[in-house]
Write a structure and sequence with these properties.
Blueprint: H1 2-8, E1 11-14, H2 21-51, H3 58-87, E2 91-93, H4 94-127, H5 132-135, H6 138-163, E3 173-174, H7 181-186, H8 193-228, H9 231-259, H10 265-288, H11 292-311
Parallel strand pairs: 1-3
Antiparallel strand pairs: 1-2
Helix pairs in contact: 2-3, 2-10, 2-11, 3-4, 3-10, 4-6, 4-8, 4-9, 6-8, 8-9, 9-10
Length: 312
C-alpha cells in the first residue's frame, strides 16, 4: 500500500510567482536580465581570480568559490523559473524535485561553512597579519573548502534520507517556483509533524546558529582591532561591513523560511528571489567594486577577451 501511494504522484505543479499574464511577462524579462547578470558577474570573478597571479591569495580563493556557489544556486532554480514563465508548463518530475532539493541544500550548507571560512580568513588577516600566509596556507584553504562541501553534502543527505520515501497520493501543487522541503513534506499523505520539526532543527537552527556565530565573530574581530589600535577600527569596520551585509542577505531568508511557523507564501517567494537572484548579483558587486585589485584584474581579463575576439 505504501509503494502504491508513493508511485501515484509522478510530478509536481508549480503555482509560480503570479497567475496574471502581464505580471508573468514582466517577471520573465526581469528574471532573464538578472540571471544573465548573475552568470556574467560571477564568472568574471571566478576567471579573474583564476587567471591573475596577483589574486592567488586565500581571500580571493574563497571569494571565487563563493561566486561559484552563488552561480550554481541560481542555476538550479532560475532557468527553470524562466522556462515556466515562458511556456506556462509549470511542472517538475518527482525525481527532478528530489534532485533540486538535494542540490540546493548541498550548495546552501556549503555556502554557510564557506562564509565562516571567509570570516576566519578576515580574522587572521586583521588580527594576526604577520602569521597570515602561514596560517592560511594553500593546504589549509583547500581543507577549509573541502570541509565546507562535505558539511553541505551531509546536511542535504541527512534531510532527504527521511523524506525521499514519503507516500504521495493526492495534492501535487507547490505554491512556489522551486522545490524545497517545507512544501514537499506538506504534500505527503501521512502525518509529517515530526519531519517538519526535523527540517526546522536541521535547516532552521543550523542557519540561525551559523548566522549568530558569524555576527559574534565579526564583533570579536572589531573589539580585537579596537583594543590594539582605534585608528584601525574604521578600516576593519569598512572591510567587515561588506561581509556582514552578505551574511544578512543570505541567512535572513533561510532563517525566516525554515523557522517562521505561520504560512506566509508571498513573503517566502520574495525571500527566495532575494537568495536566488539578488544576493548572487550583489556578492560580486560588493566584493569587487570596492576592491582595487579585483577591478584591475577584471579590466585585464576584459582586455584579453576583447583582443581574442578581434583576432578571431
Amino acid at each position: 500500500m505504501y509503494e502504491s501511494n508513493y508511485s501515484e504522484v509522478s510530478e509536481f505543479v508549480f503555482l509560480g510567482l503570479s497567475s496574471y499574464r502581464a505580471v508573468q511577462h514582466f517577471l520573465l524579462a526581469l528574471s532573464t536580465i538578472l540571471y544573465v547578470s548573475i552568470v556574467l558577474g560571477n564568472l568574471l570573478v571566478v576567471f579573474a581570480v583564476s587567471f591573475d597571479p596577483h589574486l592567488h591569495t586565500p581571500m580571493y580563493f574563497l571569494l571565487a568559490n563563493l561566486s561559484f556557489i552563488d552561480l550554481c544556486l541560481s542555476t538550479v532554480t532560475v532557468p527553470k523559473m524562466i522556462s515556466d514563465l515562458y511556456s506556462r508548463h509549470k511542472t517538475i518530475s518527482f525525481l527532478g524535485c528530489i534532485l533540486q532539493i538535494f542540490v540546493l541544500h548541498v550548495l546552501g550548507g556549503s555556502e554557510m561553512l564557506l562564509l565562516i571560512d571567509m570570516a576566519f580568513d578576515r580574522y587572521v588577516a586583521i588580527c594576526k597579519p604577520l602569521h597570515y600566509l602561514t596560517i592560511m596556507s594553500p593546504q589549509i584553504c583547500i581543507l577549509l573548502l573541502s570541509v565546507a562541501w562535505m558539511v553541505g553534502l551531509l546536511h542535504s543527505v541527512a534531510q532527504l534520507a527521511f523524506v525521499v520515501h514519503l507516500p504521495f497520493c493526492g495534492p501535487n501543487e507547490i505554491d512556489s517556483f522551486y522545490c524545497d522541503l517545507p512544501w514537499f513534506i506538506k504534500l505527503a499523505c501521512t502525518d509529517t509533524y515530526t519531519l517538519e520539526l526535523m527540517v526546522t532543527a536541521n535547516s532552521g537552527f543550523i542557519s540561525m546558529g551559523t548566522f549568530f556565530l558569524l555576527i559574534i565573530s565579526y564583533i570579536f574581530i572589531l573589539l580585537s582591532v579596537w583594543k590594539c589600535s582605534s585608528a584601525g577600527l574604521s578600516k576593519a569596520l569598512s572591510t567587515l561591513s561588506a561581509h556582514m551585509f552578505v551574511v544578512i542577505l543570505f541567512f535572513g531568508p533561510c532563517i525566516f523560511i525554515y523557522m517562521w511557523p505561520f504560512p506566509t507564501v508571498p513573503v517566502d517567494k520574495f525571500l527566495a528571489i532575494l537568495d536566488f537572484m539578488i544576493t548572487p548579483i550583489l556578492n560580486p558587486a560588493i566584493y569587487t567594486l570596492r576592491n582595487k585589485d579585483m577591478m584591475m584584474a577584471m579590466k585585464k581579463l576584459s582586455s584579453r577577451l576583447l583582443i581574442l575576439k578581434k583576432v578571431s
